[in-house]
Amino acid sequence: MSIAAESKLEWKESHKHPPGFRARRGFNWFTVGLMYSMYYMCRYNFRFAAPGMQEEFGFTTTQIADIWVWFSLAYGTGQLINGLFSDRIGGKTSMLLGAIGTILVNSIYGFGSFAGNFSTFAGLWLLNGYIQATGAPGMVKINAAWFNREERGVFSGIFGFMIQSGQVAISKLAPVILAGFTIGVFVVEPGSWRYLFIIPPIFVAIIAVVFALIPKQSPEETGYRGVIHDEIDNSDGTTVPVKQAFKFIFSNPLVWFYAVAYAATGAVRHSSDQLSILYFRDVMGFNMTTDIPGIAISTLALIPMVAVGGSVLSGWVSDRFYRGNRYPVAMVLYFIESIVLVIAAIVVLKGLVGPSTSGILLGCMFLLLIAITANSTHSIVGAAAPMDIGGKKMAGFAAGVIDSFQYYGSALSLFITGRVIVATQKAGYGWSFWFIIMTGFALMGGCSMLALTLKQKGKRGPMRAVITFMVIAVLTVSILGTRKYNQLVAINEQQTTETFYESGEEIFGTLEYNKIVAEIQELTAASTDSVASVENEQQKATNAFYQWGEETCGTRKFNQMVEEIWEFKDASADPSEAVEDVESPAANNEAPVEEVPADAPAK
Amino acid sequence: MSTESTTITASPFQLKLKNLCIGIEKQFDKHINRQSFALRMVIAAVIFGGNHFLTKSQPDLSGGLTVAINLILAVAFVWTGLQIVRRFHDMERTGGLIWAIVIPVWAIVKVTEQFPDQWIIWLVLFGAVPLKLFLELLLKKGIQEAAEPEAML
After folding, report:
1. Which residues in chain B have Cβ-Cβ distances shorter than 8 Å to A222?
2. What is the ipTM of this complex?
3. Model-level pTM?
């Protein structure tokens, strides 16, 4: 018999379970997964209700986005607090309380949202975010008691897929509700967004009843004693006092290494998820609003599939070949992810990704590779590692701490990326900085896992060196990055002004343009007496232009004008299209044409 | 390090559930030979094929009938899966390999629904592994058949 076959046989022998245990665990696992997926129905219903709310209450897109921000912050912080309490009251009670809470909040939203202002809505959804944060720690805690360390990796991979079913369910249900339907005397009018907060809680309530009956917090409660060996605490029971859980988890360095790594996972995963649509539009030139190309649909459809494949595979590798240790596999995955991202950044910078056959295929391939690597670490670091660290008694808080960092990492990444991409795109770097930022996070994740690997091997010196490197790298990149960002912003502002002077007349019409220029001239003259250099004069003119523009037109209108100039400039790159596409206001301007003052600034 | 340790007992309902689970697992533990497997696959093909032609030819079935058909289909899916797992066991392989058949086939169906023109590409891309496994299930001898000549001797 070969060594591989022998080791496989040995593994099988050591993981034999009594008759019926696998099926009973399957029931437990399925019901817990179903309950958690129902949470998603009462979370993602909001995105479908947003247009209706905007129409009825006049909320802006920024306000809707702000509600999401509040939700995310409450969710991340809620994981910390609720994780701790779930270790005290048990995962099942925690999840049931969460289900009742989310049913109540959604019902209030649905039935009571006939009056109220933005703060009321944001506050309610913030509360929902906090309540929903009972789900993940409770789920991880229940499952920790049902799986041996070497079984958790694969389970986490499959479970990740299952919980997404709630999102799929609301994506299917919401259009049906919004389209309107009739069952007997019960009529839902088309566009009734309030029912999105009334019908999903009914499903949650039904599953909550099943959840209360079937799953148990440990195999012992179902008649299977001593089947699962918990390395942290193998005694009966699944709960501990809050103080004990807090002390054990907070003082455990493993949690913090994983938390840093998971922040990196969140940063890459959410960034690639949220911005991929814009990437398709800007880099590949796809129409992503009305006529989405097949290759984009295929890529978006393949992403969850390859993600699940990667998650299961990484879990299996860590279970089978590393005896349930997640960090070596996670470390390799983070470094592979970094390499993929660096290559992607270079390729995008070289202009090889774009609206050509090879460019599109290359761009889609990078998205798929990122999805595989990011989601592989997501399952083993976010679900399997907390169970290993906390065991059945403290997995809730371990999961809470680690998972909360995913949301903080994601928020940081999106905050940086949103700003940097706008600045670098105008400066001609395209979307390469999207990949560069993700590379930084992935490298941090890899370094964190490397430091943990060194720590577990007892090499404290090298471990400290890695941590020092991480701190220095973060500080250096922050300082240099901020400086470079400010420079780019200044250059972009300058370019905007220049473009205004180049194209402003055609955009706004001669009359309006002359008025603007004259006012800028006045403002500039008033403030440039003591300035000698031309550069400073231009800078002053830029500042004056922005000041005048914002004061005269209001920020929104002014930004719109600047955008129009940019669009006009882009269109002008292709003269044949420019004439047809851009309807110049100058052409419609019936006012007499005036001469531009000879001393117009910086023209 | 435990601070809370209580002796836990299972409720009568949970013990009933345990017995049910043992019964379910026993169903999966059985073995079937090639002939039985082939025959059962023909039955499965008739059920699924029949459903396909019925839904194509009669798109406006009543709600009650649709529910009944879907229930029959769900039972047929479980039953077919059971046969595949039993046949894998007969070949001394894990029943978990059923996923290597189900997932690619599901992917082919889903992608083909999206892009009917490209079905051949997806069939070639995802179909090799399930096809190989299915042919093995149909053609490869299992424990029972391999043991038969020895028994005769």
Report:
1. 10, 14, 17-18
2. 0.76
3. 0.75
